[in-house]
Inverse folding.
């Protein structure tokens, strides 16, 4: 089993003596029960991943001494996820899986049908740190404050296309992917798209309001896509869309 892995904001250099954060210190002491001399891995997006040994256990937490570089840092794709917060467990799942799938920024969006406007940034931050450590990535996704959809779209950088999962059609009797039905499939829409940065927008339970869809479709940098002939739950849609984007555009390709 590989050594446990922990994120540190401090600069990491060979020979440095550093301290794990409070949550990680508790995990080492009470869950893993590691003692002095045990080997761990520490990492951040700036300095990469390093081997370190535990050299202190006291009331202030866990101290480590850095031994050597294991891997230089590698950035995640410049990918944002905009999502409408849903019930707590489902939001937690979206954040965890988005971190595992390489999203660089998480942007909660308040829409007309958003069922909750409360976003616990501290809770989500803890989820992203744990998921990043487990998945061997170097950076921790940035969590932006929640904001209304219209405000998020105002002044949007056109160099970052916004892939918008539009599961409502203009004509309920038209087939999905047609001119009047739901938008074309995501993979087909991304086939010839090669921007340096990208964003994915997933709506709330119940989908976007008609006025929101009209606003989104009027913007030249917004790409309406479909995730298939079935209506997906918000958390499933986020995972499916991110997987397809990573396969077609990101670091899976």
């Amino acid at each position: 089993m590989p050594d446990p892995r922990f994120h540190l904001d401090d600069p990491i250099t060979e020979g440095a003596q550093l301290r794990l954060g409070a949550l990680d210190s508790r995990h080492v002491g009470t869950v893993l029960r590691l003692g002095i001399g045990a080997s761990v891995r520490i990492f951040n997006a700036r300095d990469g991943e390093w081997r370190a040994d535990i050299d202190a256990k006291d009331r202030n937490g866990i101290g480590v001494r850095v031994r050597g570089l294991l891997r230089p840092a590698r950035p995640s794709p410049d990918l944002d996820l905009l999502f409408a917060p849903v019930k707590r467990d489902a939001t937690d799942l979206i954040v965890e899986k988005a971190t595992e799938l390489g999203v660089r920024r998480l942007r909660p969006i308040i829409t007309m049908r958003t069922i909750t406007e409360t976003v616990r940034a501290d809770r989500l931050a803890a989820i992203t740190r744990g998921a990043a450590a487990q998945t061997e990535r170097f950076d921790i996704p940035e969590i932006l404050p929640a904001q209304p959809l219209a405000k998020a779209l105002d002044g949007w950088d056109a160099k970052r296309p916004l892939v918008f999962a539009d599961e409502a059609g203009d004509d309920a009797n038209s087939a999905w992917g047609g001119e009047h039905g739901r938008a074309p499939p995501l993979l087909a829409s991304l086939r010839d798209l090669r921007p340096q940065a990208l964003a994915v927008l997933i709506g709330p339970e119940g989908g976007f309001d008609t006025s929101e869809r009209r606003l989104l479709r009027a913007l030249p940098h917004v790409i309406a896509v479909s995730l298939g002939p079935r209506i997906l739950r918000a958390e499933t849609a986020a995972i499916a869309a991110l997987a397809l984007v990573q396969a077609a555009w990101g670091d899976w390709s």
